[in-house]
Structures are given as C-alpha cells and as structure tokens.
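User: Predict the structure for this protein chain, please.
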Amino acid sequence: MRKKKTPDAIDLLDADHLAMHALLQSWHELVRGNAAPLQRRALAEEICLELTLHAKLEEELFHPAMREALRDPQLGEDTEELHVRQRAHIASILCTAPADALHETRMALLARSFEQHVRAQRELVFNRALAAQLDLQTLGRAISARRDELRAAPEALRADAMAFAPRLSSAT
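Assistant: Here is the predicted structure, written as structure tokens:
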C-alpha cells in the first residue's frame, strides 16, 4: 500500500467533520458549565462560520466533481438539502442573543443537522467518490486553495452565513 503525500478531498472534508464535532462538544461543555453568554456566543459564531465554509467547499467543488464523475445530476441533493437547513439554523443562531433560551435550542438543532450530514457523507457520498475513482488528490488541492481564499475574507463568509436570515420565519 502506497502512502498518500497530501490529504485528499475526502481526508480534508472528513477532517472538517471531526474538527466540527470537537467544536460542538466544546460548546456543549460551555453550556453544561454555565459559561458566560459571550463565551458561548464566540464559540457558536466560530462553529457557524466553519460550517458555512465547509458547506461552500462541498457545494462549489466536491459535489460538482462527484456529479460529473458519476454523471448523476441529482447526486448530493440530500446533502445540499441538509446544507440549506444548516444555513437556516446558522442564520438564526447568529441573529439570536446568547442569553436567549432559543440560542441553545438552535445550536442543538444545528448539531443534530450536522450529525445527519456527516452520516450521509460517510455512508453514501464518500464511498461513491472512492468507487468513481475521482482524482481526489487534485480535488483536495483545489479544496485547500479555496479554503484559504474563504478564510482570507471572513466578512464575506459571515455575509454568506447571514444570507438565509430572511428565511428564518419558515425555518424555525
């Protein structure tokens, strides 16, 4: 077996999943420990922006590559539906004061939605990517480059996260 020189697309996306899981666990610990609302808010915002970044990477690069490789225009629709729900949760969290009881409820909904996303990716999408013999190394490099671009413009990422705010009345 040959060792990979750099992480491929699946490695990078799954590393995001693991990092997000750790952030969500940290947030739950802050809640259980009755941390100050501003401390919970700061971590909640970090989680929201990281999830927004992750969703953009999948939507812009990974899912289109998968659709093309598998010639399946509907591939990823379930995952993208989850992204829409996650973005609605993210916008609602960013619009809610951390001392508001809804803030914790909305974070719990986001965590549940994220866990569904991870299960779908691992059980369905990643296996199909491997079977499709997609060039995951090249795609991984593209994901890394795009991640750097997005991180360099946090205001744009926040604006993207807030783009779903007008839909809150139907998402909550």
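The chain has one domain: 9-171.
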